[in-house]
Amino acid sequence: MTTKVPKIAAAGLAVTVAVAIVMVIGLSGNQTASVSGDFRNATTAEVRDAQGKVLLRGTFAAAADTNDVERQATLTATAEGGQASGDAEIEYSKDQPNVQEIEFEVAGVPARAIVTLVLDGRDVISATADDKGRAKAEFDVAVTPRP
Q1: Structurally, how many domains does the chain consist of?
Q2: Residue span of the structural domain in which 62 resides
Q3: Could you tell me if residue 78 is inside a domain?
Q4: Farthest CA pair distance, the chain
Q5: What are the tens digits of pLDDT across the range 12-33?
Q6: What's the rounded mean pLDDT across residues 88-100?
Q7: Deepest in the core among 67, 105, 135, 140, taking most CB within 10 A?
Q8: Residue 147 placed within a domain
């Protein structure tokens, strides 16, 4: 007689682990509450830690893209950032310029740290670094004029 209990327990454990992984991945990029604005002409990008220290900084420049307007910033570490590196991007379609996609990706930040992308002094989106100090996030935001 074979027992099905160990197989059911193993299957249940596998499902639980899979759900946990999906939830962690889904929560790694968290939009700052009520972010709106026009970031299409942003000039500076910073990544700050939870205490507000600037870990990375960069300046946006136009990137070659035939279908969309894309601006990228290579993020280099400050003294506080150590060996961290990363990039940030703002992109929008020529056909639909009222929706902008904002994203950033970093590596070499402290493991499990919450980092925030700041564009021209405004907090935009936060992400939690994984165990290897990598974080990334992206989201779409409607263009609204600055007051």
Answers
A1: 1
A2: 5-142
A3: yes
A4: 74
A5: 555 554 444 433 433 445 555 4
A6: 89
A7: 135
A8: no
